[in-house]
Amino acid sequence: MDVENLRLHYARTLQCWFQRFEDAAGVVPGRFGPDFVNTCRLYLAGSIAGFRAGTLQLFQVIFARGECHRLPATRAYLSFGEEICDADSVCL
User: Fold this and answer.
1) Most exposed: 17, 21, 27, 44, by fewest CB within 10 Å?
2) Which residue pairs, CB below 8 angstroms and at least 24 apart, start in 1-6?
3) Is the pLDDT reported for residue 69 higher than 70?
């Protein structure tokens, strides 16, 4: 039904996760050890860089059964507040 690339959003999501991880830096090493901390930092920082550079992608794919026809023809409703119409052009 739909495919969306969330790459631009996901860099920001990872940045928030990274900040939360750093905010917990006093607790995490004692519970999981320094190797875990270093691995997480590397993973998060590298992923942020990859999404920002465009070398990593994240796609959200929506599947629906054949009887589902409630997908809008465009995403204009996200930006312009237009009504969502079904496949028969009946606004919902």
Assistant:
1) 27
2) 1/62, 1/63, 1/64, 1/68, 1/71, 2/60, 2/61, 2/62, 2/71, 3/59, 3/60, 3/61, 3/62, 4/59, 4/60, 5/57, 5/58, 5/59, 6/58, 6/59, 6/60
3) no
